[in-house]
Amino acid sequence: MTPQVIAGQSEVPAGDAQGHPALRLEHLSKTFPGTRALIDASIDAYRGEVLALLGHNGSGKSTLIKVLAGFHQPDPGAAAWVDEEPIRLGDPDAAKNHGLRFVHQDLGLIRELNAVDNVALTIGYVRTRSGRVDQSRQKARTSELLGRFGVELDVTQPLGDASPVERTSVAIARAMWDWDLGPRILVLDEPTASLPSREVSRLFDVIREVRTAGHAVIYVSHRMEEIFDIADRVLVLRTGRVVGRGMVNDRTPAELASLIAGHAMSDDAPQERASGNGELALQIRSLRGRFLDGVDLDLHRGEILGVAGLLGSGRDELPYAVAGAVRSESDGPWQLGDRKIEPPTTVTAPALGIAFVPAERDREGLIPEFTVAENLTLGALPELRERGGFLRPRRESAQARRWLAEIGIDEATADRPVTSLSGGNKQRVLMARCLYTNPTLLVLAEPTAGVDVGARQALYDLLRERAEKGLSILLCSSDTQDLVGVCDRVLVMTNGRIADQMTGRDINAERIVSVMERVR
Amino acid sequence: MSQIVKDKSSAVTREEPSPRGTPSAPSALDRVLRASRVQKIGAVYVLFVIVVIFSVWKPSLFPNWTTAKSVVNENAIAALAAMAIIVPLCTGTFDLSIGNVMALVSVSLAWLIVQHGVGIGLAIVIVLGMALLVGVFNAFIVVVLGIDSFIATLGSGAVLQAINYLISKDETVTNPHMSSAFGSIAQSSVGGIQVPVFVVVAIALGLWWLLEHTVTGRRLYAIGFNEEASRLAGVRTKRLRFMGLMISATLAGIAGVMLTSQIGSGSPDVGPAYLLDAFAAAFLGATQIRAGRFNAAGTLIAVLVLGVGTTGLTIVGAQAWALSLYTGVVLIIALALTRIERRQVQTGHAA
């Protein structure tokens, strides 16, 4: 990492004019086994202001929120104050008592229940003298609460029937129900991630109500264009460090985009690589799915093709569709090498030479109760079979050790539980599982999520080496560093289509970020 | 382990596990010692303690070959029932209908042999075919329709019970041919060990081979531990779960044939009693030999722990409630052990 110029420019004096910060955090670090999620971060949030927390996946945003909410203990040395009064971090009760309120991405609502009951889960029920719930008063109370945030909806309908923005608003109103009793700090974790764009402005009205009432709002997002609509102040995180902060109006979108993506990447911009030999490895015409809306894909032999895009742009669905893990449609059959094939399924993919490393390593990739060796050989078991269908433990163990040596993991780990490995090593085991089957096409989703910086480079080297031997790689990632660091060609997706394409030296993080973050 | 904890720059103090020495080829003694560790076969030591307790308690009645043979012979059916549920359990699927499958086989055999004079061989083939059909039906509602296996097989078991009462008119049916000729299958013995015991051993060997030494076995376990990851790795998860329920029903059918032959009559009430014992044995068995995985050898040990305990309790004159209490307590302890074992494996503390 090259030193950040911007990181040095700390507080803009504007904050002083408004008095002390509502929330101040200093020297916040958080180390997980194998990775440092936060490194000496500090943040200030002020009353009557919206502070936007920007950064890509793995930048440390969610860790920061979780430390604030008390889910994680920070490393020693961190300190926090609410209205100049020190508070203990890593304690959910302390956070609540000091007025911190959280609306997480999943909202924590029960869709089968209506707004009245969902709100009552937090604020309690009004009871009659006999102890019965006073339904009519409870209803009136809920409607009044929602009304204060400018939300009008039928409070007796299950929330599953309400629109996404109404649900988000209910969650915010519920979190802020007792805001009259004292100053609050409202933390919103990516509230717009699943909202259609036309509804975002309604949500912003609700957030403005909160701001106008004099509370502090911390707004987590990775959509930049929203920041200029709603935020007063901005803080950018990248790989666990605060890399920029200040008033939003002092910044341009391009500036923020480059902060999010990181200048460091421009230094080692990709060299012009011989991107394969022009021989087509995979061609799909007009691939359509849940988010995918007609994507033409051409992947060459020995090429590493990167795909960028926000959540829901189709970037997250594409690898699953290509690997046959989700249903998709396309015009005509797929061209795989010199063969025409029907779209694969997870069962037919290995025989076709298509291998897949899914996005959620622990949920979709690893068998947690299996050893490292058993996880590694899962894809190639038929090859280990000997006459009579026997699986020879010694042969399996020898092969697993050979692969561990190949991917640079200590062979002694072969018989240990796979859960004892770090994120980067787990990822390498999954890649080895795929490479073992000798595929012609490797499909990767979020290959470096939760993998620390050093281990990333090792993964890139592994991929590069394989590509030079003729393996075609489709790498879909929300982390621009992957795309700049290892890809020959990058597609940027928005709204299920390919919005931009860049090759070789033209690949740069700022262009990727500005295309995918463009105003919806 | 030490290379995983890379970043030590923070003030976190943690004990570094000492790195393992270079692994030399394990000697025979090493292997025996490693295989006999308490974590691996704790139940064998428990079994030993139980035997000692009852031997001291009733030295004249308990510690002799007659008792040993009767324990083995009397628990063969329970062992068969436990074997039946191992494969679906490996894939994370419950089959609660096996008890009723055993009863279905029992009443159908009596109906065919006694009331319709069908030959013994043909009758066995027919009832095993019926058991297989039940397995296909279970697999259809669980795997194809996607109903939770626990509830689905509870439901199909209730349907089977109704059919059993219809076929048998709620009566125990037998005749001399049934009790002697058919009964001789399970009641003939070699050196005092009856045929069902040999059937158990054969099936256990088959399951051991399937689960430990075949690709299919490895995939069955993978499905049970993480079905989605297995699917994405190219495993035919539905097909294997389907197969598991067919195996459980068929093995339950074999258990039913042996049971019917042992008692020499067909009865709708005999099967379900084995359900609890079967699950107790399978879950206790999963804590043995292959920590956290359902396996045949561990299950056999577990059947013996349950069987020796109940036989011993009977010999010392315990009431029926004590036997039930014993099985129930063993089941709960086994489940608790499995849970702890899993947690240890997942957090990487297992040996």
Give an overview in words:
Chain A is 34% helix and 22% strand. Chain A is of the alpha/beta class. A 6-stranded mixed sheet of chain A has the order 6-7-8-3-9-10, sandwiched between helices. In chain B, α5 (98-116) packs across α12 (237-263). The relative contact order of chain B is 0.16. The A-B interface holds A 29, 31, 33-36, 75-77, 323, 325, 346-347, 349-350, 356, 358, 363-370, 374, 378-379, 381-382, 384-385, 389-391, 410, 412, 416-417, 419-422, 425, 433, 452, 454 and B 1, 3-7, 10-12, 20, 23, 212-215, 217-219, 221-222, 225-226, 228-236, 292-293, 342, 345-348, 350.
Q: What are the defining features of this structure?
A:
heterodimer, A: 520 residues, alpha/beta, disordered N terminus, B: 351 residues, two-stranded antiparallel ribbon, 15 helices, globular
The gist of it:
With 520 residues, chain A is of the alpha/beta class. Chain A contains 21 helices and 20 strands.
Strand order of the largest sheet of chain B: 1-2
Number of strands of chain B: 2
Q: How far apart are the first and last residues' alpha carbons of chain B, in Å? A: 13 Å
Q: Structural class from helices and strands of chain A?
A: alpha/beta
Looking at the structure, what is the overall shape of chain B? Answer: globular
State the share of residues found in helices of chain A, binned by percent.
Answer: 25-40%
Low-confidence regions of chain A: 1-17, 264-270
- Computed over alpha carbons, the radius of gyration of chain A is 25 Å
Instruction: State the end-to-end CA separation of chain A.
Output: 32 Å
H-E string of chain B? HHHHHHHHEEHHHHHHH
What is the share of helical residues of chain B? over 70%
Mean pLDDT of chain A: 84
